[in-house]
Amino acid sequence: MAMIHLIAWDNGRGLTHDITLLRDALVDLGHQVDVTPVPRKSRGLPWRAWGIRARMLLGWLRGRGPRRYDLGITLEHVHPAYLGLARRNALVPNPEWLSRRDRKRLHRFDAIFCKTEVARDTFAAQGLPVRVIGFQSIDCRRDGIPRDRAFLHLAGASRMKGTERLLAAWRRHPEWPVLHVLQSPSTATPGGTTPANLDHRIAYIDDIEAIRRLQNAHAFHVCLSEAEGWGHYIVEAMSCGAVVLATDAAPMNELVRPGHGLLVAARENGSLNASSLWAFDEAALEAAVTTAVAMDDATLEQLGTAARAWYERNQAGFAARLRQALDGLA
């Protein structure tokens, strides 16, 4: 058993989700885990880091614990004040949010734990020690919910899911099936006319089971991300056995393959921090929707079953990949 210090900005959204999933996985592997929530940006040496250092030193002097953690694992942003609290340190980056200041400090880590292959390639090219751990996502499948041959786009509060262009494309095609869009008021912008086949719901939904019903009630999930650190909403869709329409660019196409989803061609559209950004091709989206609409029930079932099988394989393999990465630092 190792004593592990998990350090991350608890933002109440994606990072909070990651903290919980990683902490639980480490505990399941038999490790003791302490979680320290930190501000988004590091400024000097935070008092909390001093406090942890003093507490551990006092406990060590009294023979009640180690002077330092065996391993510190930092999520997304680099917080240098906490690195000295552990004998070794690893970073789990989301490349699209890894700032220039963060990237200058990567050499201070003993390993970069990458969620995706494209992240591995990005950081390995800089001569950094990389290990691919992938990640895991919540199982959102609910039995007994009738599935409609409609389309769902869970935009949430993200500005990088291609939502505005998707809405515009759907408005140009009133003959397409219904697209249900759930978007946060914090990021939604007024659009044009709303055709009968577009249900654009701008709201916060606190009832997680209501979201699970939406996820399971739709045969097709449209996930046209511009970038992803991992892609929880893509993996969650596959956990429901849905057919995902995903951007044909890394890392989105690492998750969705032709055998269990539909890929939409995209062009590179700039960059954000350490990640490329991708914009889906509108003609390719039209072709993918046409394919989905024409899909027979047997093919739909086959792809959905294969998507669920991919999800289960990924979940089952995460613990082994994480254990191997940790053993490499022992």
Automatic annotation (TrEMBL):
InterPro entries noted in UniProt: Glyco_trans_1 (IPR001296)
Single GO biological process annotation from the record: carbohydrate derivative metabolic process
Limits of the Glycosyl transferase family domain: 209-278
SUPFAM superfamilies in UniProt: UDP-Glycosyltransferase/glycogen phosphorylase (SSF53756)
GO molecular function: glycosyltransferase activity
Gene3D superfamilies registered for this protein in UniProt: Glycogen Phosphorylase B
Domain of life of the organism encoding this protein: Bacteria
Name listed for the protein in its UniProt record: Glycosyl transferase family 1 domain-containing protein
Organism expressing this protein natively: Luteibacter yeojuensis
Lineage per the UniProt record: Bacteria, Pseudomonadati, Pseudomonadota, Gammaproteobacteria, Lysobacterales
